[in-house]
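Hi team,

As requested, here is the filled-out complex form for the FE2/S2 (inorganic) cluster run. I kept the field names the same as last time so the parser does not choke. Let me know if anything looks off before we queue the next batch.

— J.
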Amino acid sequence: MSVRRLHEIQPESFAFSEANLARVQEWMAKFPEGRQRSAVIAALWIGQEQEGWVTKPMVEEVGRLLDMPYIRVLEVATFYTMFYLAPVGKHHLQVCTTTPCWLRGSDEVVKACKKHIHDKPHTVSADGQFSWEEMECLGACVNAPMMLIDKDPYEDLTGDKVVEIIEALRRGESPKTGSQIDRHTSEPVGGRTTLTKEEA
Ligand code: FES
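And here is what came back:
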């Protein structure tokens, strides 16, 4: 995976909205006195929901609120790939390119993203609707190749299927998530090969 760093262009400041600050404080109150740092992931997540991505001033503000050194908050933000470190489109595609997905065709998924979103990752498309990036294993190798769009997994992809999904989202539709070939959970393509008889 490429090195995860904060974006080179940053806003001047960050402040939680009143409602979001209340949500962060609610999380802080869930932990025993002196353990408020445990709310760091929740606070960054709420900040990302507000701004669309995690900014440097946000990392500083979360550190201030939770009485954590800046570097400790930064470590969390840069470790977990659910945190976007650069501006993203309305929909952000995280494409797994680790070996199982690569062997099953993730190159075609990446090619579709390059052609139909932007030829560079971490770059918002001209219409502001999409951005994409490559990821390491997202834990759904059995249905490779796969990607996450926002919080939803899309599995058993082909390049054409990715284009269909992008176009559907562009039209404001909600394309079907999960396996795109109607595979049942993680069973072999074509159905079970073992435990085929229901025992009484
Ligand atoms: S290798 Fe792609 S989900 Fe695991």
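Two things worth flagging: Residues 183 and 189 are 6 Å apart (CA to CA). The first strand starts at residue 91 and ends at 96.

Thanks,
J.
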